Amino acid sequence: MINRQTAGTIISVGGGKGGVGKSILSIALGTVLARGGSSVVLADLDLGAANLHTYLGIRGHTPGIADFILGKVPSLESILVETSVPNLGLISGAEFVPGATNPAHWMKLKLMRHLRSLPADYVIIDLGAGVQFNTLDFFGMSDHGIVITAPEPGAVMNAYSFIKGALYRKIQNIFKHHAEIAALIEAETRIGGSEKRFTLEWLSERLKSTSPDLLPLIDEIARSFTPALVINRAPEGQTHLLVKNLITLCSEKIGITLDHVGDLPDVREISNHLLNVPRFFDLSIGESYHAAAQGIVNRLIKGAAKDGGRKARIFDFSDEERDEIILLLDSLDERVFSKTSKKAWKLRMFFKPSEVVGYLISRGITHPLFYTSA
Ligand SMILES: Nc1ncnc2c1ncn2[C@@H]1O[C@H](COP(=O)(O)OP(=O)(O)OP(=O)(O)O)[C@@H](O)[C@H]1O
Ligand SMILES: [Mg+2]
């Protein structure tokens, strides 16, 4: 039998600017999904400035993600705590531990792998403010990334930097094992000036002459990196000009399509309920926010179904297993790859391992790693 793990869908909420409403939206999405019958885990990856536990009304000491990063607990499941909402668990980020705020890349991958294998249909990641590599990487590794912003110039520009940064990190991570392209990307990003920045179009142009076989990979990255956009505290019934500009900017400057999945109303009373946000959603003043969050969930889930589950991961390999599959790719005769290239499939291992394995199986290549032992 194929190693088909029932991996949960990971949705992350980021936005660049501080205080734009990431944490409240994360809780709202979690509450809506849990009440709709899904099992959901909220993960506070605002490492160093976590507050989901407070917003969820959890008092006293909760074990946190730092315990996992520092190797004090073997699994995320052991630090999963219940919340007042049935079916909604929390992985808290509560404790500030200096050594745990900036995990190494392998640890980020491990964390994502463990999040994916939690017994949950959905894992919602609340990200911190800013464009730190950590934040951008967690965003890029998620199945759905939501960018939330206020319709204000500062917040919109921060959201743009966030999206651009997340795309850059995604590409950098995918190509880091390809010495030539990695160096090309590195050199380009060192060039100053806001116009002469790295874009997918630029990368495609460069690859046309050097590695044309990798061009479909770039197209795929552009197609699959479609952040969802949410406007918080939006004026009713109109798409703000700044929002339209952001969508145009992303499409024209970096080749990325934003999916505007909804707006959230300005409900000033939220600030009186920050010690128990789920209870706020049950009050009549919380109804409009809750309904808007429901609309966002519907749009995200429907969008994913329309994709034919394109973003769902079936295979989840550890770093060691991935390396082993890459070795296997290396050892194969070029003829196996017919008109495509071995190099492209190798890079794809860092992007879509399931497709590589699917391809190999379709070419008659089998390996114990692709199958469960049971
Ligand atoms: N839709 C809204 N209407 C009114 N106030 C809101 C709304 N959303 C958020 N707020 C207010 O904004 C503040 C910040 O919200 P939240 O903590 O969710 O932001 P954040 O982006 O997670 O912040 P940080 O970057 O610090 O993590 C809250 O105190 C809340 O009162
Ligand atoms: Mg927050």
Could you characterize what this model shows?
The chain starts with 8 loop residues before the first strand and ends in a 12-residue tail after the last helix. An eight-stranded mixed sheet has the order 3-4-2-5-1-6-7-8, sandwiched between helices. It has two domains: 9-306, P-loop containing nucleotide triphosphate hydrolases (Rossmann fold); 319-370, no CATH class. Helix 8 runs antiparallel to helix 9 (215-224). It is 45% helix and 11% strand. The chain contains 15 helices and eight strands. It is globular. Mean pLDDT is 85; it is low at 1-5 and 307-314. With 374 residues, the chain is α/β, with parallel strands linked by helices. The structure holds adenosine-5'-triphosphate and magnesium ion.
The percent range for helix content is 40-55%
User: Would you report the number of β strands?
Assistant: 8
- What fold name goes in the CATH topology slot of the largest domain? Rossmann fold
> Termini distance?
8 Å
Order of helices and strands: EHEHHEEHEHEHHHHEHEHHHHH
Rg estimate, integer Å: 21 Å
Any idea what the shape is?
A: globular
Q: What small molecules are bound in this structure? A: adenosine-5'-triphosphate, magnesium ion
Structural class: alpha/beta
